[in-house]
């Protein structure tokens, strides 16, 4: 099974690259055949990705979310599924290139650095872990989607201000829809992250009492950064619902928070030791 | 049997002449009735008459005679001699006729390239001709294909994308900001002619509410009544600005009605979300700096003209793609048109039967003694010839230039699933092979 996994690990970024190129051509006004093939190709890559995740689970006897690199591939897969659902719902392929670029980015990171191991912490086999991780991944996927819609909002906003009716104007949904999707995704992500933090804190508290964690969970760098991130997204939501901040500022904030989210994840996993590394 | 078109359009004739020859619904009736009496000249006919063109499409036996007869008929019915010579007109035959109609339906021949109205007009022209029983299988196919070409042009290219009208550009911009204009109130400041025109465009988009504010309240009330909106006095302008999401200004004021300070005050009191301001007055009623404010999208006449021009330029860029679609469909139509000849149909029918017989023989031949096989082949050939003798004679008797005859030829092709193109190719290859052998 290992050679198949290694092959898929290489093929997945290439598959997503192909999907990104196809949707880029669609955005630029491609010939009909590219438009017809873009969705099936992406669905095919998502299918292969699902097989990869299933094989990983079977081969290494745990769901592949033991470290950030495994988490990234999970996020890439979930974002693709979210995108395909949105495309099906809207019958609009124009946003594909925007949503699949971060997918490609996450998958490249994962494929380049991922290491799988059968030897994982006993914690990973707990059902409580599943709830914690699912909620956290839901949050990260939603924040990624929010950042993409935020970027689209900013691009269209500029075009409208400058009276330009080029490709961005022609292809993207209207400003109000983009803003709604941007804030909707932030809200969903914030709920997911809240659940992950609360659930994780209660559970980590119990593990600390049982002596299964090296120290108090609230001193863990990843926990601190996650709470800061949660606070930033919370401020964004507060600005939207209570302080009536302009939509453009909210879009910028969601993009900034996304950059911090990815940056902090990389920093914690590459530079700072944390109990959030299990393998 | 040939296809012809005779017409005059915005390129060949000035507006006054186009008006003279344009045909209304009442005139169509008498004109079609007259043409019916000359069925021997014009087997099928359809008239496309709009403010920019009047064209006569026909299936004729003799194109010179038919062209002359048509010009005379127009002179007789319209009492104008503009079409009696070729000065203001154009006429095409055969493939050029097909190409012309397809280009018209695709919007390539329109004053505003890619305009959508012409497609409906082509469809209506055929429906009217059909109602007067002036069409037959050929024009039915021609017009149906033309409508198909028009749809393809608009779905596969961007020839019809984006408005090219300055007046409508404002609505298009508002629709790109808001999800649904039906959810947002529109305010029109000024009840003059320009204000009324803009208000009508926005009223067509069914906004949540339409309010008219004018210095003379009575005029505001009149316009509001006409558009199904409400009027407010000039003193309530700030309140109306706070409530509105789209604001159109078209007053005769020499000074800015909305300046930065006023707009900042309005924004502070307004609900969250953007505002679209459209200034179609000259001199401008909204200070240009208002457009720099956050949440505000300001479009004045220059901006709207620039938007319309960008759309026009994009449509022009799409012309080669649409010409490609037209060429492809003309080839397809022409192949079908040429298939309406007797000889290829007979050849294809016989070929089809022989093909079936050959396959069956191939399957059964092993059950026969080798000495009987030649006799089996001879028997099959003889049987086929006898079976096909009667249909072949009947097809030879079909008058392929009449609508009835065309119907028969089309029915035979459909009944036996004849692929004339394949048979034609096969025959050409066979002939080429024979030529090589002889050389």
Would you summarize the structure shown here?
Chain A is mainly α and 279 residues long. Chain A has helices at residues 2-27, 32-60, 68-90, 96-113, 127-161, 167-171, 175-209, 221-241, 247-270.
Total strands of chain B: 10
* Discrete helix count of chain A: 9
Cα distance spanning the termini of chain B: 37 Å
**Main beta sheet of chain B: strand number and arrangement?**
6 strands, parallel
Beta-strand percent range of chain A = under 5%
Report the total helices of chain B.
16
Question: Greatest contact pair?
Answer: A-B, 20 and 23 residues
Mean pLDDT of chain B: 87
Protein traits:
heterodimer; A: 279 residues; mainly alpha; flat; B: 439 residues; alpha/beta; 6-stranded parallel beta sheet; 16 helices; 13% strand
Task: Describe the protein.
The complex is a heterodimer of chains A (279) and B (439). Chain A has nine helices and no strands. With 279 residues, chain A is mainly α. Chain A is flat. Chain A starts with a helix and ends in a 9-residue tail after the last helix. By secondary structure, chain B is an alpha/beta fold. In chain B, 58% of the residues lie in helices and 13% in strands. Chain B contains 16 helices and ten strands. A six-stranded parallel beta sheet of chain B has the order 7-6-5-8-9-10, with helices on both faces. Chain B has a four-stranded antiparallel beta sheet with strand order 2-3-1-4, with helices on both faces. In chain B, strand 5 (185-189), helix 8 (193-204) and strand 6 form a beta-alpha-beta unit. In chain B, helix 7 (166-177) packs across helix 8, helix 7 (166-177) crosses helix 12 and helix 13 runs antiparallel to helix 14 (370-396). Chain B is elongated. The model of chain B has no long low-confidence stretch (mean pLDDT 87). The chains are: A mainly alpha (279), B alpha/beta (439). The interface between A and B is medium-sized, with 20 and 23 residues.
């Amino acid at each position: 099974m290992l050679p198949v996994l290694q092959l898929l690990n290489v093929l997945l970024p290439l598959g997503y690259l192909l999907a990104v190129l196809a949707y880029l051509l669609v955005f630029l006004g491609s010939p009909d055949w590219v438009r017809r093939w873009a969705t099936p190709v992406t669905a095919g890559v998502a299918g292969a990705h699902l097989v990869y995740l299933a094989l990983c689970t079977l081969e290494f006897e745990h769901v592949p979310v033991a470290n950030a690199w495994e988490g990234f591939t999970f996020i890439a897969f979930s974002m693709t599924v979210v995108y395909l659902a949105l495309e099906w719902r809207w019958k609009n392929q124009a946003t594909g290139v925007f949503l699949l670029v971060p997918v490609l980015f996450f998958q490249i990171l994962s494929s380049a650095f991922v290491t799988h191991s059968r030897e994982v912490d006993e914690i990973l086999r707990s059902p409580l872990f599943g709830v914690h991780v699912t909620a956290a991944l839901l949050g990260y996927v939603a924040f990624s989607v929010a950042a993409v819609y935020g970027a689209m909002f900013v691009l269209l906003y500029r075009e409208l201000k400058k009276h330009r009716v080029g490709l961005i104007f022609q292809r993207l949904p209207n400003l109000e829809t983009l803003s709604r999707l941007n804030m909707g995704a932030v809200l969903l992500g914030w709920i997911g992250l809240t659940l992950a933090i609360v659930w994780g804190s209660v559970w980590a508290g119990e593990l600390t009492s049982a002596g299964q964690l090296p120290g108090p969970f609230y001193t863990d760098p990843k926990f601190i950064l996650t709470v800061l991130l949660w606070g930033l997204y919370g401020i964004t939501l507060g600005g939207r619902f209570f302080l009536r901040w302009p939509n453009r500022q909210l879009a910028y904030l969601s993009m900034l928070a996304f950059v911090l989210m990815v940056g902090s994840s990389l920093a914690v996993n590459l530079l700072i030791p944390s109990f959030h590394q299990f393998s | 049997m040939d296809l012809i078109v005779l017409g005059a359009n915005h390129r060949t004739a000035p507006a006054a002449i186009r008006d003279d020859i344009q045909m209304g619904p009442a005139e169509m009736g008498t004109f079609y009735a007259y043409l019916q009496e000359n069925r021997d000249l014009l087997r099928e006919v359809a008239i496309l008459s709009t403010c920019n063109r009047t064209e006569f499409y026909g299936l004729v036996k003799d194109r010179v005679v038919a062209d002359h007869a048509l010009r005379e008929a127009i002179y007789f019915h319209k009492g104008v001699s503009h079409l009696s010579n070729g000065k203001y007109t154009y006429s095409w035959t055969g493939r050029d006729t097909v190409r012309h109609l397809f280009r018209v339906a695709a919007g390539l021949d329109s004053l505003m390239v890619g305009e959508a109205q012409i497609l409906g007009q082509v469809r209506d022209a055929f429906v009217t001709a059909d109602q007067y029983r002036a069409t037959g299988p050929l024009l039915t196919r021609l017009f149906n294909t033309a409508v198909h070409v028009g749809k393809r042009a608009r779905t596969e290219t961007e020839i019809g994308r984006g408005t090219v009208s300055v007046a409508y550009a404002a609505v298009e911009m508002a629709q790109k900001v808001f999800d649904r204009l039906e959810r947002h109130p529109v305010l029109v400041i000024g009840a003059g002619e320009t204000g009324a025109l803009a208000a009508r465009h926005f009223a067509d988009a069914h906004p949540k509410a339409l309010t008219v504010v004018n210095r003379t309240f009575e005029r505001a009330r009149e316009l509001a009544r006409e558009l199904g909106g409400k009027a407010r006095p000039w003193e309530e302008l700030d309140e109306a600005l706070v409530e509105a999401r789209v604001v159109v200004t078209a007053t005769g004021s020499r000074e800015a009605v909305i300046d930065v300070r006023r707009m900042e005050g309005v924004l502070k009191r307004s609900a969250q979300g953007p505002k679209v301001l459209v200034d179609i007055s000259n001199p401008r009623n909204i200070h240009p700096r208002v457009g720099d404010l956050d949440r505000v999208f300001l479009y004045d006449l220059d901006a709207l003209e620039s938007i319309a021009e960008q759309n026009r330029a994009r449509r022009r860029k799409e012309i080669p793609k649409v010409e490609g679609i037209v060429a492809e469909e003309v080839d397809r139509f022409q192949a079908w048109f040429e298939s309406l000849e007797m000889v290829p149909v007979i050849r294809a029918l016989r070929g089809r039967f022989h093909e079936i017989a050959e396959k069956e023989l191939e399957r059964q031949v092993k059950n026969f003694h080798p000495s009987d096989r030649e006799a089996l082949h001879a028997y099959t050939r003889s049987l086929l010839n006898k079976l096909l003798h009667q249909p072949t004679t009947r097809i030879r008797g079909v008058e392929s230039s009449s609508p009835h005859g065309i119907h028969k030829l089309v029915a035979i092709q459909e009944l036996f699933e004849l692929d004339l193109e394949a048979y034609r190719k096969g025959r050409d290859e066979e002939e080429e092979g024979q030529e090589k052998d002889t050389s």
